[in-house]
Amino acid sequence: MKKSATLLFLFIIAKFVLQYSLISPEYELHRDEYLHIDQGNHLAWGYLSVPPLNSWFAWIIIKLGGSEFWVKFFPALFGALTIVVVWKIIEELKGNLYAQILAATGILFSVLLRLNMLFQPTSFEVLCWTFIYYSLVKYFNTEKVTWLYIGAAVFGFGFLNKYNIAFLPLGLIPALLLTKQRKIFLQPHLYGAILIAFMIILLNLVWQYNNGFPVIRHMKELSERQLVNVNRLDFMKSQILFFLGVVFVIIAGFYALVFYKPFGKFRFLFLGYVFTIALFLFFQAKDYYAIGLYPVYIAFGAVYLACLLEKEKMKILEPVSILIPILLFLPLYSVAFPNKSPEYIFNHQEKYKKLGLLRWEDGKDHSLPQDFADMQGWKELAQKVDQEYSRFPVSENTLVLCDNYGQAGAINYYSTKGIKAVSFNADYIDWFDLSKKYINLIRVKEYSEEEEELKETGPFFENAKIADSIIHSFAREKGTVIFSFAQAKIDIRKRLQEEIDEVKGRH
Q1: 359 φ/ψ angles, rounded to the nearest 5 degrees
Q2: Helix, strand, coil proportions of the chain in percent (round to 5)?
Q3: Is 350 exposed, middle or buried (0-12, 13-18, 19+ CB in 10 A)?
Q4: pTM (2 d.p.)
Q5: What is the DSSP letter of 164?
Q6: How far apart are CA 292 and CA 295, in angstroms?
Q7: Which residue, among 404, 430, 503, 434, has the nearest Cα to 45 in the 3D structure?
Q8: Residues 6 or more apart whose Cβ sits within 8 Å of residue 300
Q9: pLDDT digit string (tens) for 16-41?
Q10: Contact 252/305 with Cβ under 8 angstroms?
């Protein structure tokens, strides 16, 4: 095995080891992960919240047993493959081993460690962005049209993973038109490749059409509730922090794409960055939407720096530059990831508070960072719902109705009773089984006024009580109440259908 291949293999191993070491055993899955996993039980060509591709990975995870190991495996794999693609870009640019090590180290010790920690579409999205840029580098280097088709296919699957990837061609098209590489638009195979991408995404477009284009409603809600609060200055600050350890490499990449003659044919990539970032700023996009932009510039910057250091006989700086991303990462390792127990964080709050990590979206400081609190209390919830569920003599006639997708997904993931909890929240609104004649209801409500729920829902049942509640002191769901209602006096299915129609009508 060549030295280069051996080192790449070691980086892949390091990536997996690091990812699995970032989460302490005291933590459970994140609330978002439960929804994404449950989508694997309801395969479709589209969902209210996301495109369908991630559900296919979820289906594989479920077939592999559904353990937390496999849930964490796929985002780690996509992160490792991102390193591989960058390694191959440098190889295509005739970069040396130092350039490959520098780029791989910078990507390994970056925001991707945080991103690849959770089973969400973002990890595969970054891989797709990086691979599409790689396909363009290969095409303009070799002029083999195969790479146009490969890049288009990756774009198609990237679109089925996250619609944000549409920003990539929107930024590249004007950039290509402003450079000599505009000749690509005269290449007939480009349009054949576009057709391939269209065929890949067609069934999702049909699903969107048949369901009234929920992506438009979703983007409108996102714009009104979240994106409107995005601060453009904060967006730009985050771009620096994402790959802080190799910012100097990214800057070198920008410089080289503009002024370094051997990279002249790739100048469109610099302009592509400018146009894409401008689009993100215009639409007030979330800062992490742009993460997929950077790996390719790290590759170009590493190659340029390797040439510069060799030319200026400054190779002594090579190990120093490789150490920078590692040294900058070390202080973050102990605070930015859930690798310390909740008790440890609670007893050492000062260093977390200084970095603003304890502030939640409500503007208040709490015992744990919000994401960490979103990884607590789910097993307790599932166990307590299971316990109440088993008390009903005909449990399959019992509906478990939750307030949010995290509750429903966690119950479905951890339940040992085969519960299929639902909610009027997110994609669960499409997963009600109205063929069953429900006579009992277990209602999971967050931060409930207990007497008010009993007063409102209790009269529709023969028996009503508070069964239990979440008491986990560090869980974001602390205080969530489990109500138990038995022997319905009404037709629950009819009432559910009315509620579903009302919720969908509001959308």
Answers
A1: -85, 125
A2: 65, 5, 25
A3: exposed
A4: 0.92
A5: G
A6: 7
A7: 430
A8: 89, 93, 252, 253, 256, 257, 263, 266, 269
A9: 999 999 999 999 999 999 999 999 99
A10: yes
